[in-house]
Amino acid sequence: MTVTITAPELRELLDSGTPPVVLDVRWALGDPHGREHYAEGHIPGAVFADLDRELAAPPSPEGGRHPLPDLADLQASARKWGLREGQQVVVYDDLGNTAAARAWWLLRYAGIAQVTLLDGALGAWRAAELPLESGVPSDPPAGDVVLHAGGLPVTDADGAAELAVDGLLLDARAGERYRGEVEPVDARAGHIPGAVSAPTGENLAADGTFLPADELRKRFEEKGAAGATRIAVYCGSGVTAAHQVAALEIAGFEAVLFPGSWSAWSADPDRPAATGPSPS
Questions:
Q1: How many helices (H) and strands (E) does the chain have?
Q2: Any residues with CB less than 8 A from the CB of 208 and at least 6 apart, and which?
Q3: Which residues are 23's β-sheet partners?
Q4: Where are the alpha helices (DSSP H) in 55-184?
Q5: DSSP state letter for 210
Q6: pTM for the full model?
Q7: Using one digit for the tens of pLDDT, what is the confidence trace for 72-98?
Q8: Helix or strand or coil: residue 256?
Q9: DSSP letters for 37-82
Q10: 17 included as an active-site residue
Q11: Which position among 235, 242, 246, 248 bears the catalytic label?
């Protein structure tokens, strides 16, 4: 299944008789101004998707900082974005798709097969000298899509702990957070014992596009993916881990997402935490 689309390919689709729904998922940790960034300039026709409010449920100790939204709420959002049955969706952000991948993963999980990431994100659109529009347009006509959970696999904290022993559990956060040197947002520093460090940023080339499939495959094989019966991924709150799932799919591996991620794990005082550069 195709994971990415190029900027020229997206432009061609937008000019076709059956254009996709394009979602702008501008979000970054510590930056609550995604909607304002969208208004300053976005791909023509793109609809802003609010990661905190539409692509996640309210935070909780058990669910973490970005729990999966209720399916009915997600369906209401998707219809508000104008998504119709059988319509293609393209998602992007301005940060190498590390936020937009949440929408990619969530819609795939909810049964939308034709969801692609704009490879290189908004930077690739700019680099191709394609037009942007500003302002906040009126809502598109309501869609009619019907969502069904279960399109992609998930696990919980117990499952993540098991996969750290019997499979491969990848930690997609920056190395310093994995090692426990810093922890800017969550309850404790460190990582799930047995997890292997695999920072999301290392999936990308300098221009923000995904590395070629063979390079990604080599990267994950070196992390232990080749011999793993099952692979799971987590991050801080299940956002950038979705980007890792996409990179693994490009490389030819299927991965399970732990949506609660470190934010849920670290909030439970009975869950152990490891520190330092090694998994245990």
A1: 11, 9
A2: 96, 97, 120, 121, 123, 124
A3: 47, 91
A4: 71-80, 100-109, 121-127, 157-166, 175-178
A5: B
A6: 0.96
A7: 999 999 999 999 999 999 999 999 999
A8: strand
A9: HHHH-B-TT-EE--HHHHSSPPPBTTTBSSPPPPHHHHHHHHHHTT
A10: no
A11: 235
